[in-house]
Amino acid sequence: MNNEKETISKEEAAATLKSVDLTKRDAIKSFRIPLLLITLISLSYSLVVFSWGMTEHENMWALGMYIGAASFGIFVALYLYTFRLLGIKVSVLPRTKERIRSELVLAVIFAVILIAGRQVRLLGFEFAPHIAALIAGGYMAYLLYKYPTGEYLTRNQK
Amino acid sequence: MTKATFDTVIHAPNRLQICALLETTKELEFQIVKEQLDVSDSVLSKHLKVLEDANYVQLIKKTEFTRQRTWLSLTSLGRKAFKSHLRELKRIIGKI
Fold first, then answer.
1. Interface ipTM above 0.90
2. Residue B1: pLDDT above 70?
3. Chain A contact for B8, CB < 8 A?
4. In a domain, A156, yes or no
């Protein structure tokens, strides 16, 4: 490796960054899990958000919350297992500072949607849980489709 | 933030692609990396040996469901070196 050059031109650097971006994006595209699994994970999460928003002392929506949470856990486990069979191990816990930051932001966003769905309904807008479930499920599906391995890629080259 | 440095070990096209692939996830199987790069076993092994010697990549062989699988991952040193190399490339093109 001693004969390898240690400086490169601007054009070569730009082309290299472009190829890195392409490699990552092609890989992410090929790592996407089946749409059915994405839909099932998103729907089960929507059920949790919707049930939480509708739960009262005397109704059965708490059961929907438990069923949604259990299904969500099962489908996420299936998602991780599918990846493993394909030869991809996804990190469940964040390892880098950037990932910790983005996971915290996501946790806050999902928590706000969950709480808002219930609180707004209690204030009198009865369709708030429906809207919250739709937003949470849609956003979950988008994230699973766009970032299947959980790594949030930044673009190196415009 | 570590200083941006041009890394000749990482800069070779195939090794750069290996690092880029491994950065997208925690671990990847040898076969997946081979398919993504569209190279032969021997070519990939040769590049992995260079990265492993530099302590940038870790190879773990495991038997799962009676099948031998080799899992590849970037070490924390490898992640730092790859990011530092990308920063240096951005510096060269004047983005930072």
1. no
2. no
3. yes
4. no
